[in-house]
Design goal:
By secondary structure, this protein is of the alpha/beta class. 40% of the residues lie in helices and 16% in strands. The chain has 7 helices and 7 strands. Helix 1 packs across helix 2. The longest helix has 21 residues.
Amino acid sequence: MKPVSGWSYRFICAFLRGCLRFMHPIIHIKGRENLPQGAAMLCCNHSAFSDPIWVIVFGKCPTLPRSMAKKELLEAPVMGWLYRKLGAFPVDRGHADVGAVKTAMQTLKNGEKVLIFPEGTRIKKGKVSEPHSGAVMIAARMKVPVVPVYLSTKKHFWQPVKLIYGTPYFPEYAGAKPTQEELESRTTELMRTIYAMGEQV
């Protein structure tokens, strides 16, 4: 299934923004101007199935960012169809999914954005996660900036929601290629930055 594009992409995003604003009349969006032109790795904290929709439709990127999602979600009859139309591609979390990595890298090579949730699963507020270093690894290999994104962990009906797009940056490494230890360290720093963004605004 091909993702939507052109006017279909803009129409669906506008419709979904309207739905989200109806459910959450108060939405604080900050830093949308930080989203760079061209390829970038968007990395967000993860607490709900709706997270990719929030990040994508309020980002208002000229072209549809593609998001990495667990394959079980994309197999769902309704939500799976919607996420595929919004550019999601599957990843098998139980294995080293080379196909998902290649899709992400090709998307970045094409000058498009990729959205990944380094925590890999939904994490509720106050819980501790062990983030995966795949997003940082792909960004380093493709030499694209990482954009930290924070999204409120509580999104009950009528509750205010914060969505913050942070400043893009290129993680630094000692050598030409990062070691696994460096990737894990930079991923931990990334998640700390993301949650700190939510506390400061």
